[in-house]
């Protein structure tokens, strides 16, 4: 084939490849076997009679469409590049003969289709040695079978043939061949192509790719010079929360407050701090702390603590001495000119907590008149009342 025709085929293949959405890079091949054996008879680059190899030499024969490598019997034959097994043929005698049509003349062979549309043939292999099956995905370097001389062949060798657009093409480039080498590394004339597999490109160097991450974030990766993606960057702007999520947390002494996650993945404003039972005292909880309510119970109202035990007599007018006020002192209401007054309001306890309550203040109008149970009760009451006042005084 002339260089011009090859370019034409090359262009057609490139267009087909682009239309199919596959990578547009041309597939290149490794040497399809391991030993360092150079070309025996190559592709005939001269139309008409006679032959010319890619370097204008005579390593070819008239009309030859492949590259013959003189592999010893039973040498492992390997895939030149990743691809899909399209055809296999086995069962031909390992020793063929000139004019044999077994396997269409290829004897025992494998045909592989590659990503860019090229096909490769590995022909004249050993009977029973084919290791792959039609439809199988294979990687560059995978074993396909072993060499022999099956089919239309008169000596042990591997016939490696590349077809572009269904037509045989010379994988070597040179002054009498085409402009493209289909080898990863062609090597010198009389040398041999390398066994390096082509580098599979994941992406085009410099390309960027972004994807969502976290709740509202984005991360990015870049295609490196080696055609592989870098790792993803950290997630930027991922947000504090997922939209519509809710969160409830403790607040104050025994209250709760909540907030919802907004569409920008940030928490909205916190609600007011509410106690478990803002309207009643039944669900009050223990303080467990020193101070005014240390031995009592508190409840939360609007995030503030209300001291329950401190206030027993909210009206401060219980009489009869049997009533128990804070500290458990008896109130001999009205007796002996004593009066009680009520001090509503709030003040801070020793832990700087805001305390709401009512304190009963004793106003003694006469001192005790003499020893006796009544006087003892008076003294107890005065002591207790003094404690209550002290609390008030510290606010
Ligand atoms: Zn051949």
Description of the molecule:
The chain is mainly beta and 395 residues long. Among the domains are: 3-169, Distorted Sandwich (Glucose Permease (Domain IIA)), CATH 2.70.70.10; 310-393, no CATH class. It has two helices and 18 strands. It has helices at 3-19, 373-393, and strands spanning 67-69, 76-78, 83-89, 108-113, 119-125, 137-138, 143-146, 158-164, 167-169, 208-213, 217-222, 246-251, 255-260, 285-286, 297-301, 304-307, 339-348, 354-363. A hairpin with a 2-residue loop joins strand 8 (158-164) and strand 9. The longest helix is centred in the C-terminal third of the chain and has 21 residues, at 373-393. Zinc ion (ZN) binds at residues 64, 66, 68, 159. Residues 64, 66, 68, 159 line the site of zinc ion.
SSE topology sketch:
Blueprint lengths: L2 H17 L47 E3 L6 E3 L4 E7 L18 E6 L5 E7 L11 E2 L4 E4 L11 E7 L2 E3 L38 E6 L3 E6 L23 E6 L3 E6 L24 E2 L10 E5 L2 E4 L31 E10 L5 E10 L9 H21 L2
Parallel strand pairs: 16-18
Antiparallel strand pairs: 1-8, 2-7, 3-4, 3-6, 4-5, 5-8, 8-9, 10-11, 12-13, 14-15, 15-16, 17-18
Structural class of the helices, strands and pairings? mainly beta
Question: What is the name of the CATH topology of one domain?
Answer: Glucose Permease (Domain IIA)
Give start-end ranges of low-pLDDT stretches: 1-24, 277-297, 308-340, 355-360, 362-368, 386-395
Let me know the number of strands.
18
Mean pLDDT: 75
Number of helices: 2
CATH architecture of one domain: Distorted Sandwich
Question: What's the CATH first level of one domain?
Answer: Mainly Beta
Distance between the termini: 106 Å
Please describe the biggest sheet, giving its number of strands, its sense, and whether it closes into a barrel: 7 strands, antiparallel
Q: What order do the helices and strands follow?
A: HEEEEEEEEEEEEEEEEEEH
Q: So, the CATH homologous superfamily of one domain?
A: Glucose Permease (Domain IIA)
**Bound ligand species:** zinc ion
